[in-house]
Amino acid sequence: MASSLHDAPSAAVNGTFAADAKSQVHKKPRLYADPSPPLFTPSDILSEFSHHDPAIARINNGSFGSCPSSVISAQNDFRLQWLRQPDDFYFNQLQPKILQSRTIIKDLINADHVDEVSIVDNATTAAAIVLQQIAWGFAEGKFNHGDAAVMLHYAYGAVKKSVEAYVTRAGGYVIEVPLPFPVNSADEIVHEFRQALQRGKQNGRRVRLAVIDHVTSMPTVVIPVKELVTICREEGVDQVFVDAAHGIGCVDIDMKQIGADFYTSNLHKWYFCPPSVAFLYCKRSVNNSDLHHPVVSHEYGNGLAIESAWIGTRDYSAQLVVPKVLEFINRFEGGINGIKKRNHERVVEMGQMLVEAWGTHLGCPPEMCSSMVMVGLPACLGISSDRDALNLRTCLREKFGVEVPIYYRSPKDGEEGGVTGLGMQSINLLTMHSLVLLFPIHKLNLTLICRRERERRKRRVVHLFRFTPQKNPNPHKSRFQVPTLCLVNRENSVSCQFMAAKRVIAVCQSGGEFETGKDGTLLYNGGDAHAIDVDDETKFEDFKTEVAEMFNLSMNTMSIKYFLPGNKKTLITVSNEKDLKRMIKFHGNSASVDVFIIMEEENVAHDVSNMPASRSSRTTLSEAVAPVDPPLAAPLDIVDANNHHIDASIDMPTEISSILSLSKSTQQWQNTITGVGQRFTGVQEFRETLRKYAIAHQFAFRYKKNDSHRVTVKCKVEGCPWRIHASRLSTTQLICIKKMNPTHTCEGTALATGHQATRSWVASIIKERLKAFPHYKPKDIVTDIRQEFGIQLNYYQAWRGKEIAREQLQGSYKYAYSQLPLFCDRIMETNPGSLATFSTKEDSTFHRLFIAFHASLCGFVQGCRPLLFLDSIPLNSKYQGTLLAATAADGDDGVFPVAFSVVDAETDENWYWFLLQLKSALSTSCPITFVADIQKGLRESISEIFKGSYHGYCLRYLTEQLIRDLKGQFSHEMKRLMIDDLHNAALAPRPELFQTYLESIKKISLEAYNWVIQSEPQNWANAYFQGARYNHITSNFGELFYSWVSDAHELPITQMVDVVRQKIMELIYTRRATSDQWLTRLTPCMEDRLANEGMKVRTLQVLLTTGSVFEVRGESTEIVDMDRWDCSCKGWQLSALPCCHAIAVITCIGRSPYDYCSRYFTTESYRLTYAESIQPIPDVEKPLQKDSSSALVTVTPPPTRRPPGRPTTKKVGSQESVEHRITLRMTLAG
After folding, report:
1. Which residues contact 53 (CB under 8 A, 6 or more apart)?
2. How distant, in Å, are the alpha carbons of 405, 419, 482, 916 from that of 394?
C-alpha cells in the first residue's frame, strides 16, 4: 500500500473544492469578517515566540524567518492528519488546500490568475525551474550559442551556481552587472544595468534572460525592479526573472506593476511561514509549456502549478498553513503593510545610530533599505578577510549571545582606510506599540553604545563592547531581559558596568507641522524623527544638546514639547531638569514618549554686509542642513489682463530662511547681475537671470513694471532701497539695465523673504535630467533642489515643474490633440495610400483616431493570409483611452501590424467605427476570417461591414467566460480538465472527435456541456468552422502593440502614434533584411512543419489508383483527394500545408510537396509582405504648420484625464460624434 502511494498521480483526486478562489479569499486577503480581529497584545506576542532561545539576541530574521507558535501548531495538525489517514488526506484534502494557499498568494501579489502561481520549496527551486527552461532553449536550438543571460553581481550565491549549471554549460554567455558599493541612488543601478544589456547585445547576440534581484542580501539594497524590467522590454530581452527571496512581507509586490515574466519569493523569511514554502509567479503570456519542476513525477506535462503540487511522497504541511499565517498577520495593526512600515522605520533608525557612533556609513540610502540595513564596522576591529568576519560572527554568537551576519568586502583599487567589515541587521520588529517585544529591547543598549562611542572618539580611546544576557530570576516574567553593557578602556583597564535601569525612548521629531483634528486633537505630520533613551539620570542640558546636535539646530532657538498621556490637545514645554523628570515620570508605564522640537525666532542682530545683496554672513553649508519642512512655497506664474508675465512670490517662513545656506550651484549665480549697462537678449532672459541672482543672494523681489519692453523690480521688504530697472534699447530687442541700487538694508529683520523659485525655474533646472531619466520622481526633485540650491519645494511644486519640463521636452498634450488634423495630413502626404482619419464629439473633444499605413495595407493584401486578429490594449496615458489593433500573420507566423486606432473608450460604437475605417482602407474583396472576442459588439459589426467574412471566436476569451459562468462549482483540477477538453474540442478536425471531447466534458458537468453547446461551436470549433484560421484559435497577436505602446504611453498622442510608426518601420526593415538571406522555398517556420510531417511518411502505405483520389493506410485509413487538396484527416485543409498522408501520395506520384503548399507560406510571399516601406514623418515633434484645410478643425483633449491616485470608474458620454474625414489618400496598387 505504501509503495502504491509513492509518486501517486493527483489526477485521481475525487474530492472537490467547495468554492472557487474568489469566494474563498478577498482581493486584499483578510480572513476575518467585521468586526476586525483582536490585535495582539505584548503578552500574546511573547507567547507566540516563546519557543525562541531567550539567551540569543537574534538579529538575523532574513535568513530563516520567525515562525509563530500558532502556525507551527497548525502545521503539526496537518502532519497528524496526513499520518492518521494519508489516503483520505491525499485524495480529498491536499490539492484543495494547496489551491487555497495559492489563491491567497495570488491576491497578495496582485496576479491575474491563480494558475500563474506555483508553490515550491524555496526561491532556489524556482530559479532552477526558470533556468532549466533556458538550458532547454539552448539544447533544442531555439537560442544561438553565445546568447546572453544578465544577472546582478550581488545575486544570491545559489542562484549564481544555478546559472552556471544551467546556462553556462548549455552554451550561454553570462554577464554580471557590477553594482557600486556603497549604493548612492537607484540611478547608479539603472546606469550599470543598461550598460550590461548593451554588452549582452554585442556581436549580434541576444539577451535571452535577465535575472534581477528585488532585495539583495549583500549589500542589503532594494533594487528598482520596475525600472529595470521596463528597460529589458525596451532592449528586447526575451524573459525577465525577478529573484525576490526577501520580497513578500518585506517590500510591496504587485505583479501587474512590476511586469516581469517570472517572480519568486520565499514565504518563510518575512511572511512568518515555516520552511519550506515559496511561490513562483509565471506570467500567462509566457509560453509555460516548457516550464517543469526539476523533480519529475506523475503530473509532468499538466502545468507547472499542478506538477509542483505533487512531487512525490513528502511533507506538504508548510504549503498548507498560508491561511493560518494570514490570520496571524491580520492581528497586527495595518496587517502586513503595517509590519513592513514599522520594520523599515526601526531598522533604519538603528542603522543610523550605529553609523553615527562608529563613524562609518550605511550600505545604501535609507529609502533603498527594506527591513534590513547594512552597517559599516569600525576599522579598529581589524577585519581583513572572510575568515575574520566569520570569526567575529562566531564570537558574538558563542560568547555574547548575539546572532548577526557579518560580511567582508575587500578595499577597491586606490581605496585607503575604507570600511572593510560589514555588519547587517535584519530584524522583524512586528509591532511598535510596546518596545518590550522581541528585539527592540536591544535598541536601548545600542543607544548606550552610540553615546559611549562618541565619547570614545573624543578621547581617542579604543573601547570594546559586548552584550551579556542576564539570567531570568523569575521564569513567569518576560524572557527578553535587558543585557548589561561592558565598556573596557584599554589604556587603564578600568571596566564600567551599566546595569539595567528603567528608561523611556524619547522619539524626537522636528521639521513637521501640527494640524488640528475635528475633535481638537493635534496631529503632527512630516519632518524627521530620531530616538534617544532617557532616564532619571539624564541631565536636561545633555538631553537638549544631543537633540540640537541630532537635528543640527541652534539651542537658542529650540523649544522642546510633549503631550501628557491621553491628552493630545495641549503641548507641555520642557525647559529645565524638573520638567524633564516629570516627562519621564508621566510616561513611566510607556515604552516611548513623542517629543516635538519647535523652532522659534532668534532675536539676534545681524551685521549688514557691504557686498551687494549678499547673504553670505548666514549659516554656512557645513553648519546647517536645509530642513525638510515647512515647505518653501515657490512663486506662481501669473499672466495679467495685458498678457504680461508676473511672478507672484509667497513668503518663506523665517525659520527656514534663517538656516538655508548657499550651495556651490547657487554661488555661481551671485554675479549674474553686474550692474548698469548689462545687456540681455530679451525680457525673458533678464527675468531668468534676475531670478537666479535673487536665489543666490537669498532675497525676494516684487515687479513694479513688467511687460515686453521694460521691467522694474524692487526688494520685497518695505524700506529696503534695493532696486533695478531695465528697458529695451531703441530699435533693438536687447534689454539693458538702466538703473540699479545694489544695497540691501533688510538683513536680519527681513529674513522672512522668499526665494524666486517659480515652477518654470524648477522646470529649467530639471529638464536635462528628466530627459536622461524619464521616471524622475517629484520627491527626488524636491531632494535634489534642496541639496543643490538650498531651496525647499513642496511636492506639488516639484510635480508642476516636472509637468512643465516634460511639456518642454515632449510638447504639450493639449497642443498634440489640436495638431491631429495636420498630423493626419502629414501621414498621408509622406505615405501615399495610407489612411489617417479621426473624429471628435460635438464639443470638439477627441473621440477616436484611425491609422493604417500603405506599407501595412499593401503587405497584408499582397503577402498575408486573409486572416485578421482583433484585440484591444488599455492606455496608461494622461488621458487614458484604449488602442484597438488589427494584426495579421505573415508567412513565417510572425505578427504583422495592419491598422490601429486610439479611442476614448472600448465600446461597441468605437469597434464599429474602427472596422468601418478598416474596410475602407483595404482594397481586397477576398473574404477575411477574423479571430476576435465574442463580446464588444464585434459579432454584429463584422457580419455587417465585412459581408461574407467569418468570425472565429477567440478561445482564450471563450475559456475565461466559461470559468466565470461556472461560478466556482468545481475544483481547480476539474476546471483544468474541462478546459483541456474544450481546447481539444476546438482543435478537433472532425465532428466525431469533437463530440468525443464534449462527452468528456459532459461526464464532469452537464451544465458545462450545455454551456459549450450553446456557445455556437460553428464559430470556434475546427470541425464546423467555415473560415480559414490556419489553426490560430486565439487573438493575442495584439501583444506586440502592447509592448510598443507601453514604451510610449506617457507621450502626447501624436508622438505616441509616431513611436508606433517607427516600430512598424523598423519591423518591416529588419524582417525584409532577414528574409533576403533565406535560400529555402518556404519560410523557415513552414519548412520545419513540412519536414516534421514528412518524417511520418515512412510508416504509411499508399494504394495507387488511376484517378486523383488515393487511400493511405497507417494507424488509420485516410482518403486523399489531390485535385481538391483534401485529406480526410483534415490536417491539410486546416494548416494549408500537406499532411503526412498527402505527402505520401505526392511522393508516389513523383511530385514535390512544395507544389501543394499555400502560396502564403513561400519566401516570395513573405518578401512581398515586407516589400513596401513606411516613410518618416519629418519634424513630428515640432509644431506643424497650418497649411491645410484640416487646420480649421478644432480638437481638444478628451474629458477623461487621469486623476492623481487610484483610478476611478468613469462614465462615457453618449454624445453624437462628428467625423472629420481626411480624404487625401490613394488606392492600393493591385
Report:
1. none
2. 10, 20, 22, 76
pLDDT of residue 699: 81
pLDDT tops 70 at residue 32: no
Least confident of 91-95, 165-169, 306-310, 1212-1216: 1212-1216
pLDDT tens digit string along 444-467? Answer: 333 333 444 344 433 332 222 333
Contacts 24+ apart (CB under 8 A), 6-10: 6/312, 6/313, 7/297, 7/298, 7/310, 7/312, 7/313, 8/90, 8/298, 8/310, 8/313, 9/297, 9/298, 9/299, 9/310, 10/94, 10/95, 10/298, 10/299, 10/306, 10/309, 10/310, 10/973
pLDDT given at position 1048: 66
CA distance 963 to 975: 8
How do residues 1069-1096 score in pLDDT, each as one tens digit?
A: 999 999 999 999 999 999 999 999 988 8
At 645 the pLDDT is 40
Distance CA 338, CA 342 (A): 6
Query: What is the torsion angle, in degrees rounded to the nearest 10, for the CA atoms of residue 344, residue 350, residue 351 and residue 353?
Result: 140
CA angle 728, 732, 734 (to 5 degrees): 50
Q: Residue 636's beta-bridge partner residues?
A: 648
Where do we find the cell 536622461? 772
Any idea what the Cα angle at residue 308 is, between residues 306 and 312, rounded to 5°? Answer: 105
List of E strands, 440-501: 463-468, 484-489, 494-498
CA dist list (Å): 604 to 7, 541, 624, 683: 84, 22, 18, 39
CA proximity to 554, closest of 508, 511, 600, 514: 600
Residue among 1000, 991, 967 nearest 1130 (CA): 991
Residues 782-810, mean pLDDT to the nearest whole number: 76
Phi, psi of 85 (to 5 degrees): -145, 80
- Supply φ then ψ for residue 264, to 5 degrees: -130, 150
Is the torsion defined by CA of 725, 730, 731, 737 positive or negative?
negative
pLDDT of 79 higher than 80: yes
State in Å, rounded, how far the first CA of the chain is from the last one.
73
Going by their DSSP bridges, the two strands 636-639 and 645-648 should be labelled as antiparallel
Instruction: Give CA–CA dist 727/685, Å, rounded.
Output: 13
- Given a cut of 50, is residue 1229 above it in pLDDT? no
Q: CA nearest 97: which of 202, 25, 45?
A: 25
Beta bridge partners of 372: 426
d(Cα 892, Cα 894) in Å, to the nearest integer?
A: 5
Q: Give percent of the chain above pLDDT 70.
A: 77
User: What is the chain's mean pLDDT, rounded?
Assistant: 76
pLDDT: which is higher, 1164 or 1205: 1164
Distance CA 122, CA 464 (A): 39
Mind spelling out the 3-state secondary structure of 1023-1037? Answer: CCCCCCCCCCCCCHH
Count CB-CB contacts under 10 A for residue 814: 15
DSSP 472: -
- Nearest Cα neighbor of 506 from 531, 539, 529, 527 is 531
Half-sphere exposure of 156 (CA within 13 A, CB side): 25
Residue 522 is which amino acid?
L
Highest mean pLDDT among 486-495, 585-594, 793-802, 1039-1048: 585-594
**792 secondary structure, DSSP code:** -
Helix boundaries (H) for 654-717? 654-657, 664-667, 683-697
Judge contact between 875 and 882, C-beta under 8 A. Answer: yes
Residue 540 has pLDDT above 50, yes or no: yes
Give residue-wise pLDDT tens across range 920-978: 998 777 889 998 887 757 888 888 899 888 998 888 888 888 888 876 567 777 788 88
Whether 446 contacts 350, CB under 8 Å: yes
